[in-house]
């Protein structure tokens, strides 16, 4: 419905022509758009020196070119297809990403051949590179062709090629892109430029003396559409890219052809001679490459002292410009000379690249101490107007105070308009929850990533979302809200719905910036900020002064919490201070205290000094001297790397996420826990994991929280007569959830006729929460067989949902439904839902299979965790399934991930000792397998050391691979690990000790008579 309405709203029935006359003739409208885009995409025949004034030097090496010019393999092509969104609008051929993913086995041969053909011959089929231009209105009532934004819809087959090239280009761009650009580059975030620009404006507001400062916001007109191809290709040549690569890029951008989609149908056909498609995976990176020429021009002018940028601190880096794709802002001294240099540089860049500056939308802002005569001279040189105080960069106000308040009010209005347009009365509560979580609550996130909102504004955002969720008009005073919004906004694991409370979400977003500042990465914004505010302090003692910027004051407010969430990962241990750094994640607080309080032996002691070498281990004699038994236990839970650790420095890790990297989701949960004593309850994990529709899960959640508006609950906050509180179905008792679902005659009769006959009244005394627990755990409570669990959960939930529906029909529609109707309706719905779920694949059990090759050995591994310790175990068998060794190790740590990784390590270590050349490492822990196969991917920070040790040993094997297997295929290692843990069997375990019932042999084999 909404899609149809939107499509009709965007239909074009009339437009103003060049004579400013309305024209409704469809042919004339088509001609207007075709002529408009013909003009836009017609080359300006740019003129530039072949060497681009030596702005670029050959920096791409032969090794880089070899990487860039590879013919893609099937695996690389498939990985690209997986990255392409499934449901985005298709190109002219009509095939979406979902089609290629779903029918990969059918189309892969032809598709791979077509893609590899391009990389071999350097030619694209014209049909593959044909593109539809769809028109997106720039405002609510566009009336000219200029008020439509063109978006390109390319074929997915072309996008695969473009994304292959883009991913490879992204891998080398760090070599030649200046730090003043922060768009689309790995490790860069958009907030970097916003923060730097805000800090510069903070300096400008406080500027005193005779010399003024200025900031110039440049608006590039149709930046992507005007970019010249020859200019981009020349930059590639200057940087030393191979001619094969340049030909591939040229083929992609110069062989494009367009048709324009007007009112759902494509019209016309033309070939452009310039421009980059918006929607093409290559376009952002090619545009950044073109912008790099401007960046280097400005940096050269700064190096030759022709201009002087603005530094936000005495020893900090100077900033003459910031670039984020086509968003450009210039900084410098407010004088005619600087203005003239800027004007000449911009003119040259536009002549070379085809770019065009929109003078009417570009603007200048001066510091308060700038002289009026100087301002007039600069405006005359640049032909730009002076900006008001509401100047924005990347959509965020650069001035605090009134501009920020106005901006936040605009966001609030935008949220309220969005919510009002959704018509809450026509949506289910599950639908409202999804819309709030995915759309409405994210609207202010861009602003919240760089500043903490005022408390009253955050409450206004929450109030709007709350009213929409409860189904009230956005401005209506709510009456019935039986559960606090702060509780609803908890993470699902804590009993909420995962809707984010604005103030806590705001902190989680901004906390990411604190994390970037305290972590070990380097960037221009971090250098500038730390030079300004941290030159004479450290993170533990940092304070904010009255004169500091709003951004820094927000950072300081969050600092304590973020620091308390950091744990130091011990690698070589040389930099971590024993008495002041948070290096013990299992200890609270994570910084140890001496055994005798107040007596700090060796005040500058480092963690490396607590270890011994060959093999690397903790120095227990020293530990017993310095620490209590509790602290020693926490230290022993840290596994020390054995190989190649000397050159690996200790790293700060975010302890609320297994990867050790900061995530907004984990930070939000941590902030909620920090302000609330609620602990995660297993009931919530089970509720959200049950195989039901989201609407039915929400229904169970509402029942469990007693927030359904029964007559009894409504009577607590609304004036209801006593005779209206009775159950509307049986009229026997007050209508509560306990009565309706456990005592009412409707429920009793239904359950007597159910596939699982029950006397439902037996559960009434324990209450509705207990009944929900039974639904989620029917095997434990009712001895329902495992194969019937899902059907029981489905029937039970549908029975309650249908009863609530009939109750509402009876009250609001004055309907009279009999018990027979209720039973029939429930059974029909149950059969319908059960049939839909039958299509889901059922879990199958597999047996372990030995390696096919005679000289390859299988090593399966697992861990048993119990009683504050764990046992890691590995089993090695040959191609006949004959056991070669069983090795186990007792650990002081109880983290199952670390235990699994240790099990893999001891298996590989034992195989290495026995000089086995070829192995297949098999386990049911996906995290462990990934951490071994992907050394550069952060999986689990506490297992990084053992995974690195495992990879170090594996490099000496002739052949190895690590594969994930099903749990049922790992029964042998699992069972023996449990047995070894219970019986304290460690080291090399003789096969004769292991109970035969725990051993697994290939089908048809008897246990071997010879023991290794």
From TrEMBL:
<dbReference type="Pfam" id="PF13456">
    <property type="entry name" value="RVT_3"/>
</dbReference>
<dbReference type="Pfam" id="PF00078">
    <property type="entry name" value="RVT_1"/>
</dbReference>
<protein>
    <submittedName>
        <fullName>Uncharacterized protein LOC108990151</fullName>
    </submittedName>
</protein>
<dbReference type="InterPro" id="IPR012337">
    <property type="entry name" value="RNaseH-like_sf"/>
</dbReference>
<dbReference type="InterPro" id="IPR043502">
    <property type="entry name" value="DNA/RNA_pol_sf"/>
</dbReference>
<dbReference type="InterPro" id="IPR036397">
    <property type="entry name" value="RNaseH_sf"/>
</dbReference>
<dbReference type="Pfam" id="PF13966">
    <property type="entry name" value="zf-RVT"/>
</dbReference>
<dbReference type="InterPro" id="IPR026960">
    <property type="entry name" value="RVT-Znf"/>
</dbReference>
<dbReference type="GO" id="GO:0003676">
    <property type="term" value="F:nucleic acid binding"/>
</dbReference>
<dbReference type="InterPro" id="IPR044730">
    <property type="entry name" value="RNase_H-like_dom_plant"/>
</dbReference>
<dbReference type="InterPro" id="IPR002156">
    <property type="entry name" value="RNaseH_domain"/>
</dbReference>
<dbReference type="InterPro" id="IPR000477">
    <property type="entry name" value="RT_dom"/>
</dbReference>
<dbReference type="GO" id="GO:0004523">
    <property type="term" value="F:RNA-DNA hybrid ribonuclease activity"/>
</dbReference>
<feature type="domain" description="Reverse transcriptase">
    <location>
        <begin position="117"/>
        <end position="398"/>
    </location>
</feature>
């Amino acid at each position: 419905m909404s899609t149809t309405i939107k499509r009709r709203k965007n239909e074009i029935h009339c437009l103003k022509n060049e004579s400013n006359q309305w024209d409704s003739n469809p042919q004339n409208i088509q001609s207007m758009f075709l002529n408009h885009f013909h003009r836009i995409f017609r080359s300006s025949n740019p003129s530039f020196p072949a060497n681009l004034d030596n702005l670029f030097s050959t920096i791409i090496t032969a090794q880089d070119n070899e990487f860039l010019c590879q013919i893609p393999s099937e695996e690389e092509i498939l990985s690209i297809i997986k990255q392409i969104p499934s449901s985005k609008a298709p190109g002219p051929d009509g095939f979406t990403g979902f089609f290629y993913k779903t029918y990969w086995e059918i189309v892969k041969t032809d598709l791979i051949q077509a893609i590899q053909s391009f990389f071999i011959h350097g030619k694209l089929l014209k049909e593959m590179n044909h593109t539809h231009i769809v028109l997106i209105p720039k405002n609510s009532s566009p009336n000219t062709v200029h008020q439509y934004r063109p978006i390109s819809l390319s074929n997915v087959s072309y996008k695969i090629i473009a994304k292959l090239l883009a991913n490879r280009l992204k891998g080398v761009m760090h070599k030649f892109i200046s730090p003043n650009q922060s768009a689309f580059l790995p490790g860069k975030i958009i907030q970097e430029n916003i923060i730097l620009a805000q800090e510069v404006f903070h300096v400008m507001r406080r500027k005193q003396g005779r010399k003024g400062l200025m900031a110039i916001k440049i608006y590039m007109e149709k930046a992507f559409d005007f970019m010249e191809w020859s200019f981009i290709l020349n930059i590639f040549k200057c940087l030393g890219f191979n001619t094969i690569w340049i030909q591939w890029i040229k083929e992609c951008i110069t062989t494009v052809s367009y048709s324009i989609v007007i009112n759902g149908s494509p019209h016309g056909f033309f070939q452009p001679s310039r421009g980059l498609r918006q929607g093409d995976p290559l376009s952002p990176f090619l545009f950044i490459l073109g912008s790099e020429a401007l960046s280097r021009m400005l940096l050269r002018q700064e190096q030759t002292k022709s201009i002087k940028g603005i530094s936000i601190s005495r020893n900090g880096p100077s900033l003459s410009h910031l670039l984020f794709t086509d968003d450009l802002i210039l900084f410098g001294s407010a004088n005619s000379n600087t203005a003239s240099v800027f004007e000449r540089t911009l003119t040259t860049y536009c002549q070379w690249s085809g770019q065009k500056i929109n003078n009417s939308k570009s603007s200048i802002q001066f510091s308060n101490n700038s002289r009026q005569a100087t301002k007039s001279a600069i405006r005359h040189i640049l032909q730009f107007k002076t900006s008001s105080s509401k100047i924005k960069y990347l959509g965020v106000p650069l001035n605090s105070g009134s501009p920020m308040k106005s901006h936040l009010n605009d966001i609030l209005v935008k949220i309220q308009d969005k919510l009002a347009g959704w018509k809450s009365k026509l949506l289910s509560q599950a639908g409202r929850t999804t819309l709030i979580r995915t759309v409405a609550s994210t609207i202010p996130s861009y602003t919240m990533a760089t500043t903490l909102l005022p408390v009253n504004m955050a409450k206004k955002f929450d109030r709007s979302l709350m009213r929409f969720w409860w189904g009230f008009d956005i401005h209506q005073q709510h009456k019935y809200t039986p559960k606090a919004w702060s509780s609803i906004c908890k993470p699902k694991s804590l009993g909420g719905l995962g809707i984010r409370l604005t103030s806590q979400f705001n902190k989680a977003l901004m906390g990411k910036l604190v994390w970037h500042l305290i972590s070990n990465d380097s960037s221009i914004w971090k250098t500038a900020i730390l030079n300004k505010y941290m030159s004479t302090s450290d993170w533990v003692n940092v304070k904010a002064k009255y004169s500091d910027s709003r951004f820094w004051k927000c950072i300081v407010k969050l600092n304590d919490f973020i620091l308390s969430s950091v744990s130091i990962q011990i690698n070589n241990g040389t930099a971590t201070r024993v008495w002041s750094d948070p290096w013990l994640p299992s200890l609270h607080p994570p910084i140890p205290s001496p055994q005798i309080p107040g007596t700090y032996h060796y005040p500058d002691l480092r963690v490396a000094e607590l270890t011994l070498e060959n093999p690397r281990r903790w120095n227990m004699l020293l530990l017993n001297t310095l620490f209590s038994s509790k602290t020693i236990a926490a230290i022993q839970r840290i596994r020390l790397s054995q190989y190649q650790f000397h050159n690996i420095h200790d790293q700060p890790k975010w302890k609320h996420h297994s990867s050790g990297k900061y995530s907004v989701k984990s930070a939000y949960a941590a902030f909620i826990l920090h302000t609330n004593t609620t602990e995660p309850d297993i009931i919530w994990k089970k509720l959200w994991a049950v195989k039901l529709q989201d609407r039915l899960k929400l229904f169970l959640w509402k029942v469990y929280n007693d927030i359904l508006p029964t007559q009894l609950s409504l009577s607590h906050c609304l004036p209801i007569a006593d005779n209206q509180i009775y159950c509307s179905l049986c009229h026997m008792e007050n209508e509560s959830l306990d009565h309706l679902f456990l005592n009412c005659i409707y429920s009793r009769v239904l359950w007597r006729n159910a596939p699982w006959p029950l006397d439902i009244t037996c559960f009434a005394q324990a209450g509705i929460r207990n009944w929900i627990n039974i639904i989620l755990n029917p095997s434990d409570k009712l001895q329902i067989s495992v194969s019937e669990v899902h059907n029981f959960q489905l029937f039970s939930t549908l029975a309650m949902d249908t009863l609530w529906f009939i109750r509402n029909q009876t009250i609001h529609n004055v309907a009279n439904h009999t018990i027979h109707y209720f039973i029939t309706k429930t059974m029909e719905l149950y059969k319908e839902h059960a049939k839909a779920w039958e299509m889901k694949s059922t879990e199958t059990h597999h047996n372990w299979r030995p390696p096919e090759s005679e000289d390859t050995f299988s090593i399966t591994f697992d861990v048993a965790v119990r009683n504050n310790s764990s046992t890691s175990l590995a089993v090695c068998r040959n191609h006949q399934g004959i056991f070669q060794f069983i090795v186990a190790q007792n650990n002081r740590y109880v983290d199952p991930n670390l235990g699994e990784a240790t099990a893999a390590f001891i298996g590989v270590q034992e195989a290495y000792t026995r000089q086995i050349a070829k192995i297949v490492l098999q386990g049911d822990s996906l995290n462990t397998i990934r951490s071994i196969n992907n050394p550069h991917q952060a999986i689990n920070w506490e297992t990084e050391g053992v995974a690195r040790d495992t990879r170090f040993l594996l490099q000496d094997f002739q052949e190895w691979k690590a594969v994930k297997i099903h749990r049922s295929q790992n029964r042998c290692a699992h069972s023996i690990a449990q047995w070894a843990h219970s019986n304290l069997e460690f080291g090399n375990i003789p096969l004769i000790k292991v109970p035969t019932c725990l051993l697994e042999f290939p089908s048809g084999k008897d246990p071997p008579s010879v023991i290794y």
